[in-house]
Design goal:
Rossmann fold; 52% helix
Length: 332
């Protein structure tokens, strides 16, 4: 009912536009912008969801593809339930990397082995599910969902975010949810005066229309989620189960052929321990696109460009500025 109400609100506020915010239609808008600025071909850098938009653009307008970078690649051909499944597994992989680093530093306050560190995070999730953590704001205790985003944000940030995660877990163990809440708010773009953007409402509107364009998925199997992601699986299964079945707006559009035949070389960037968009999605997208060229960042955190890897940055810059296409399979 919450989704139905949100969809009705979107339709009331936006009118007919509310049924036309699919990725396919946005890609068409992108080509209009290309033409308006007088470019014969599109030069484009897309990260995370932007890779789905970029891949859709290439599939619709392969002759107009110039230099496209798709960084932190989403998989355009799997149902959203499978996206959540990969999302959970990606965050378990990222958590394992964080735990290994914490222990190898020689002074990890969360445990003496990686398994102990992971158990500390799992115990925190169990605790807040049973009784939300108090914060400085009595109206905003940390629930399990908020705790998830509080952990997800620093894991997505890679090594720079790990000290923040350690501090937040330690504070949570002491009964203080302030740091987890601050990290969750960062992930959800919420400030002192409320949400600073309509990010999640827009994402819901787009996803629930795109769900009608993507292939049908099976019902969510929580056991499958937990098997793929012991720490995060049950939580993200809840997100997947929430689904879009009650979304009241509809589209009749169909998925294009994501192979983008005839397009110029497209650079697909994957990070080996990316929690949000697992590395195998980048590998698969590079194969789906006929002219896909896979560029790999061996590292942590979401996306690869401007994340401290000079090889990745230089390779992407050379491609975007000078048209130098990297060798397929290049690893930095």
């Amino acid at each position: 009912m919450v989704l139905a109400g949100m969809g009705e609100g979107c339709e009331q506020d936006a009118g007919a536009l509310a049924s036309h915010v699919t990725t396919v239609e946005t890609a068409r808008d992108l080509d209009v912008l290309r033409a308006l600025v007088g470019d014969d071909q599109l030069s484009y850098y897309g990260a995370s969801y932007g890779t789905y938009l970029g891949a859709t653009y290439a599939s619709l307008f392969p002759d107009n593809v110039g230099r496209l970078v798709l960084d932190g690649a989403a998989h355009p051909e799997i149902p959203f339930s499978e996206i959540w499944l990969g999302f959970g597994g990606g965050f378990d992989l990222a958590l394992a990397s964080y735990a290994d680093n914490c222990v190898s530093s020689g002074a990890c306050p969360l445990g003496s082995t990686p398994d102990e560190v992971i158990t500390a995070v799992q115990d925190m999730f169990t605790r807040v599910d049973e009784e939300p953590l108090p914060t400085s704001d009595p109206d905003r205790p940390v629930t399990q969902q908020l705790a998830f985003w509080g952990v997800a944000a620093p894991l997505a940030g890679g090594e720079e975010g790990w000290p923040l995660l350690t501090d937040a877990i330690l504070e949570a163990q002491d009964g203080d949810g302030d740091s987890l809440l601050a990290l969750a708010d960062l992930a959800n773009e919420r400030g002192a005066d409320g949400y600073e953007s309509n990010l999640f409402m827009a994402q819901t509107a787009i996803d629930c229309l795109d769900t009608q364009i993507r292939p049908e998925g099976d019902e969510v199997d929580i056991d499958e989620f937990v098997a793929a992601s012991p720490t995060f699986g049950a939580i993200v299964a809840g997100f997947a189960e929430y689904g879009c079945a009650s979304w009241p707006l509809e589209t009749t559009l169909e998925a294009p052929a994501y192979s983008a035949p005839g397009a110029a070389p497209i650079v697909v960037v994957g990070t080996t321990r990316d929690p949000n968009t697992p590395y195998d999605w980048a590998q698969q997208l590079g194969e789906i696109i006929d002219s896909g060229v896979l560029l790999t960042r061996d590292g942590d955190g979401h996306t690869g460009y401007l994340k401290g890897n000079a090889c990745i940055d230089q390779t992407i810059n050379e491609y975007l500025v000078n048209g130098a296409v990297p060798d397929d399979g290049t690893t930095c």
